[in-house]
Here is the input.
Amino acid sequence: MPTLILVRHGRSTANTAGVLAGRTPGVALDERGTEQAAALPGRLAALPLAAAVSSPLQRCRETLQPLLDARPDLPLHTEERVSECDYGDWSGRKLAELVDEPLMTVVQQHPSAAAFPGGESMRAMQARAVDAVRHWNATVEAEHGENAVYVMCSHGDIIKSLVADALGMHLDLFQRIHADPCSVTAIRYTRLRPFLLRLGDTGDLAPLAPRETGPDTDAGADAAAGGEGDAAVGGGAGAP
Here is the structure.
């Protein structure tokens, strides 16, 4: 099955202002976020991307635009199911104000029980995002083969919830995961289980390119890189 390259959108004007943007329209990348997006094509240059999938929100589309400019043949698909969580009445409010809301403690400590007033629950957010990834895994594999790589630009809570799903973690633990703006999280999906290859990575991504396999391939190293073999002892620390 394919390798999913999850990109969190670059730093936005809402990030800088300390505002919970949610789905508020008109939230763009700030100057730093624009620089991060401009660097993305170089960071992904070694990866043979089969498709790009994006949240419909402006900050995600702006993050992917330099990559699309650099790869004019890369098809872009808009996917509503990986849009930001619908924070409802909380959207557009200062995070500093929300700290004192009783619901914030639930969001941080027991997110599977959290539902935003006028918005959606965090359970529903994760469910739709996981459904979207399953759909695109199948679509990309059918069109480009099981070793295909594709990129998806989304939002922090969406990415964290997808990582929790890939690791078999309960949603109540997902606040332990962190992904910086314009960081890359890579998940290699296989028939039996996913492998988390990168989490919040801001460095060199060339090792994520598909590798040839053969009779001399080390099973442990292949598993650590995302193959279907058993994971190497010690978490694959010796794998390249």
Summary: The chain has eight helices and six strands. Residues 6 and 92 are 25 Å apart (CA to CA).
